[in-house]
Design a protein that fits this description.
Radius of gyration: 20 Å
Distance between the termini: 37 Å
CATH topology of the largest domain: Growth Hormone, Chain: A
Largest sheet: none
CATH superfamily of the largest domain: MFS general substrate transporter like domains
Number of domains: 2
Strand content: under 5%
Order of helices and strands: HHHHHHHHHHHHHH
Shape: globular
Number of helices: 14
CATH architecture of the largest domain: Up-down Bundle
Amino acid sequence: MMMVAGEAALAVSLADSLFLSISPDAARSKVLLFLAFSFAPFVVLSKVISPYLDQLPGGRRMTVFLVGVLRAIVVLAMIRYLQSYLLFPLAFASLILAKVYQVSRSAMTPTVVADDDALMSANGRFGRLTGIVGFVAGGPAVLLQRIHPDLSLVMSAGAFVLAALLTLKLPRHVAAVTSKASRKEREEMGAPEIIRAGFAMSSLRATSGFMMLHLAFWLRNEKAGLAWFALALAVASASTLLANSVGASITRKLNHHTILFSSLLVIAIVGVISALVGSITSGIVLAGVVNGFGAVGKLAFDSIVQRHAPDANRSRVFAQYETRNQLFQVAGGLMAVLLVPSGAVGFACVGAYAAITTAYYGFKY
């Protein structure tokens, strides 16, 4: 949770000093550069580093520890170069470290719970705590930012250091795999049900990546744009919190493929309606729907993996798919920055993409 607190404080500082303090064209070029270069580290993480970390005892645990330490160092460096162009490569480094942490966290979770039911509960509980900590940490971060721009970064660095220290309390066997995947495990990991569910989950993450950056660039030119964007983030966080609160019970009662199909369908419908309305309020509602149903879809995807790959090492499967999901999320954000559509056109893009993926997934299923 300290990682979440540090992320919230860092987001407050960067939103004020990096994104909002420069011209729209400059912000677009910098964000575009960050997203474009975000792909390379994931290819390395997926093909080279991740398999090695899976086999190293304590590898994922040590990765998270190093991420916490390195993020603290990067954030402290930002204090010195807050008004310099060196802030941009530092922010980029922080982005990459954040993605590495998310992949490692997904790999670690199955190894610290007793069984599949406990994994579902842990995922839902983590989602709820993430939303709560994000809200709680955001308030003090904003207050510190108003006192002095450096203070919110100091808060962020302190949270990352504490997160790193807490990681050392995890057992050394976390996410350790003693051998390469067996033939049976490879067959389970490549099961058609998992591949289809993985496609749906990646599509949900792509809409999330597109929607947040689309709103950010569109609303910054609107009257009271910062306030509207802050409201959009609050609604998105609240919807994720709600989804994780009720998602576990839903996934226990309904067919998991039906949940993924319905999630894509709802986003498609709301996307089209939002495009027709074209208002700021409709965009904020769409952002909430995208985040909420994305969270429910993640729980359904986890259940499908548990059911159809009982002999596979879950840490390996979740790391593999989380890496791909992160790539899709970055790709969605990249399209938002490349196209920079108007509000209604962007909403229509979300609706059309979700409709196409819904039809494809429904046909395959």
